[in-house]
Each structure stands twice: as C-alpha cells, then as structure tokens.
C-alpha cells in the first residue's frame, strides 16, 4: 500500500539521551497516525540530525514508488539550513505537522531539560521559514496529533498526495481526435505531460474495432449477466445491449493492456462501429476509469485523478456536461447530462438499461443507462488551456431533485443550483473561460482542488 514518510527534525546538540526520547516519541506519533490513516500508510523514516542524513533520506524517498509524500515534524530545534539541500531535491508533496509529543505542560515539574526537548513551537517555526524562503508548496497542519481535526486534515492531505502520485503516472488513450471545430477540448499535451504527468496517446478507431471482433461469446454472456444484476433491463432490443457489452470488454482489455486509466471517444470518428459507445463507457466509468467525450482528454484525465482523490470518501465523482437551463426566476437550474455517458455512481435510484435513437452520429440506436441524479453539495471542475498555461476552474454547486419528471429524455441527468447565485456564478464561469465539460463531485471540495492546483503550479479560479 502507498505510504507517507514521517521525518522528525532534531540535531546532535541535545545529546544521546534526548535523541532517544525524540525517536521514541516520533515512533509513537507515526504509529498513531498510521492507525488513523485512510487511503495510505504512515511510516516513520528516522530522526533527521544533519544535512547529509536529510539528503540521503530524500533520495531514498524520491526513488520509492510506494512513497506518495513526506510529513515533517520538528520535535526539538532543527536548524533549517541543514534542510536546504534535501528540500531542493524533494519531488514529493510535503505536509508540515506542527504538533507536540505532549498535550499539556507538566506545570509542577517543567524544567530546562523538558524545554530543550519539547520545542516544536521553536523548531517548526525555523522549518516553516525555510519552506517559505524556498517557495516550497506545502500543507501546514496545526494541533495535537490525537485530535480528530488534526487527523482529518492529515487524511485529506493523504488523499491529495495519493492523487498527485496517480496523476504523475497517468496515461490517457484517445480513440480518434477531438471533435471538429471545437476549441475547448484542445490543449497542449506536451505541457500537460511535463507539468501534470499526463501522457496522452492516440489510437485509430480501427484498433478498437479489432479488439471488439476478438471478444468471445462466453465473455460477452458473462458480463451481460453481471450487468443485469446491477441494472434494470428496460428494453426488448437485447442485441443492442449486447453490442455495448462487447464494447465494454474490448475497451477494458485495450486500456488495461497498456496501463491506461482514462480515455476519450468522438461520435464523429466511429468508422466500423455500429453504435457510439454509451453503456460501455458508463460501465467503465463506474469502475473508476476517467472519460472525456468528443476527444476531451483533459477532462478524462481530470476525472480519473479526482476519482482517485475521492476513492476513500463518501460521495460520487463523475464526468458531466452543462446542457441546458431552467431559467424560472428565482429558482434557476442547470440540467447536466450527456448524449450517453454519465457515470451510474451519480444515480439516485437503480439505473435502467434502455435503447433509443441518438439523433446524432448516424449510427444504430445505442444502449445506455438512464437515471435521475443524486442531491447534495458538490463542485463542478474543469481544466482549460489559456494559451499561457493551464487553469483549473472550480464552482460550488448544489445538486437538486429535478422539479418535474422528464419522460421523453432518454439519458442520465443531474440538476444543480449554482452558487452564490445563477447570474454571478455563470458570469464568473464564462469570464474565466470555463468549459462545457466538467467533473462533478459530491466527495471533494474547492479546497481539495485548490491544493491540487497549487502542487502543480496551476492557476486556480474558485467560484462560490
């Protein structure tokens, strides 16, 4: 399992007995945080007393694929110049934990030995100064390590560090190119690879067609039976449903073979396929793959990363599109949907498998999962390329129950209210250059996304 390295700052000035106490306290704190951690382990990696020790430890941490970040706490005073060379090399996210081994002061017994040993109030200020001087992005957590709020903040950071690690190795598969003439789905793939770690590769739809042709009847029947256990069949066109089942098997096999965790399709590039992949994409999204429609590789990657960040939290995270509005005065709402591809983790009730004409793309009517969406506070997030760099835009929204049924709309749909209000929220999104494709999440917050943007040095816009 992935882990964060716990390092304690000290120095030789206080003698061997004091350093033994520092190590014992550090082990106790690291073990407590490890037991309370969610989504990653916490492992004590030593008391750092010299620059050489720090450099050697950082090199080991950098080369360890299982290590997602570093937690540093200064038990005693830890002269910050000895941290410079190691911090210059550090390639993992950093959390600065400002805590103490003791909760309360021993007022009747406190002496200078106690003061020299327990001076995080002193040592952590020295360490924080050098982080600021060097411009190092970090998460600062303040409080006694056993407090619920302290543990919660550390766990939120572990989610972020795990997502950062995931992002740095992410591979996106594009079946076909971007939708013709669409601007916002474009972007600098080389810069994304350099800054975010996102490797984006192109494949012709013919490569997927060959994979579909290789799917066996036994495989198809097995997934079809499993799918009927999860979702309600609401069509007589079983052949169309089984066509999507074959697509799902082929897509998964193609992606897994080369380690792709996100992918795109384009309804303008389907030569050789009978249907636009609809339910097939929904089945893969439900299992954690990122997806972007019309070749939108940025939103596919962002969706995969956000799903990883939210992996151990309650709530749903899914690809979405702002489609149309209800402009009733005082209760303005956004109807979010897509032609087919909305993740069933956003469903308020058991999704239905249905087959309907698509009305676009010139292919056979595809099977898809149809449902009404969940309710709750959420964020809608997109990544855009401004020409001078990437911009992460995050709007606070409230998912709501649709006011009336939509019996003739045969796609999954979610409705939401924009904060702080419709006019100012939408205006801010438009002026920031926000895309029509987003990732909506009830599990993540604007603070999560701001921290992710800061780690990558990306501009962040918060609407709320």
From TrEMBL:
Enzyme Commission code(s) on record: 5.3.1.4
GO MF term list: L-arabinose isomerase activity; metal ion binding
GO CC, alphabetical: cytosol
Residue ranges of every copy of the L-arabinose isomerase C-terminal domain listed in the record: 317-459
Occurrences of domain L-arabinose isomerase N-terminal (ranges): 6-165
Keyword Isomerase assigned: yes
UniProt KW keywords: Arabinose catabolism, Carbohydrate metabolism, Isomerase, Manganese, Metal-binding
Gene Ontology terms: biological process: L-arabinose catabolic process to D-xylulose 5-phosphate
Top-level taxon in the UniProt lineage: Bacteria
Top EC class for this record: isomerase
Domain L-arabinose isomerase central positions: 171-311
Pfam families: AraA_central (PF24856), AraA_N (PF02610), Arabinose_Iso_C (PF11762)
PANTHER family the record matches: L-ARABINOSE ISOMERASE (PTHR38464)
Name recorded for this polypeptide: L-arabinose isomerase
Source taxonomy: Bacteria, Bacillati, Bacillota, Clostridia, Eubacteriales
């Amino acid at each position: 399992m992935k882990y964060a390295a716990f390092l304690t700052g000290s120095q030789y000035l206080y003698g061997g007995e004091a350093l033994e106490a520092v190590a014992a306290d550090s082990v106790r704190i690291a073990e407590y945080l490890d037991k309370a951690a969610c989504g990653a382990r916490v492992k004590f990696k030593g008391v750092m007393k010299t620059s050489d020790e720090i450099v050697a430890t950082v090199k080991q941490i950098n080369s360890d694929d299982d290590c997602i970040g570093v937690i540093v706490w200064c038990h005693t005073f830890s002269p910050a110049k000895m941290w410079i060379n190691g911090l210059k090399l550090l390639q993992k996210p950093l959390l600065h934990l400002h805590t103490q081994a003791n909760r309360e002061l021993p007022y009747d017994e406190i002496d200078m030995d106690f003061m020299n040993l327990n001076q995080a109030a002193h040592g952590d200020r020295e360490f924080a100064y050098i982080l600021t001087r060097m411009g190092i992005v970090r998460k600062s957590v303040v409080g006694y390590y056993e407090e619920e709020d302290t543990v919660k903040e550390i766990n939120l950071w572990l989610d972020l560090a795990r997502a950062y690690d995931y992002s740095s190795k992410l591979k996106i598969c594009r079946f076909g190119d971007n939708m013709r003439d669409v601007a916002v789905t474009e972007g600098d793939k080389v810069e994304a690879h350099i800054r975010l770690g996102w490797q984006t590769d192109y494949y012709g739809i013919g490569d997927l067609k060959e994979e579909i042709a290789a799917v066996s009847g036994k495989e198809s029947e097995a997934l079809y039976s499993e799918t009927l256990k999860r979702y309600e069949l609401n069509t007589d066109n079983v052949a169309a449903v089984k066509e999507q089942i074959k697509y799902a098997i082929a897509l998964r096999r193609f992606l897994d073979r080369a380690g792709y965790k996100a992918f795109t399709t384009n309804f303008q590039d389907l030569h050789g396929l009978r249907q636009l992949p609809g339910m097939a994409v929904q089945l893969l999204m439900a299992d954690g793959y990122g997806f972007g429609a019309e070749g939108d590789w940025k939103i596919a990657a962002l969706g995969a990363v956000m799903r990883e960040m939210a992996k151990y939290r309650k709530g749903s995270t899914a690809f979405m599109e702002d489609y149309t509005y209800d402009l009733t005065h005082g209760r303005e709402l956004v109807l979010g949907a897509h032609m087919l591809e909305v993740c069933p983790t956003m469903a308020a009730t058991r999704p239905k498998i249905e087959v309907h004409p698509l009305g676009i793309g010139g292919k056979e009517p595809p099977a898809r999962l149809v449902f009404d969406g969940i309710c709750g506070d959420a964020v809608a997030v997109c990544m855009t390329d401004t020409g001078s760099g990437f911009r992460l835009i995050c709007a606070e929204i409230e998912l709501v129950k649709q006011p009336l049924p939509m019996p003739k709309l045969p796609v999954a749909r979610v409705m939401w209210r924009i904060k702080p209000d419709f006019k100012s929220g939408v205006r801010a999104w438009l002026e920031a250059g926000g895309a029509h494709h987003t990732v909506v999440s009830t599990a993540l917050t604007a603070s999560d996304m701001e921290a992710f943007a800061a780690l990558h040095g990306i501009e962040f816009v918060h609407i709320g």
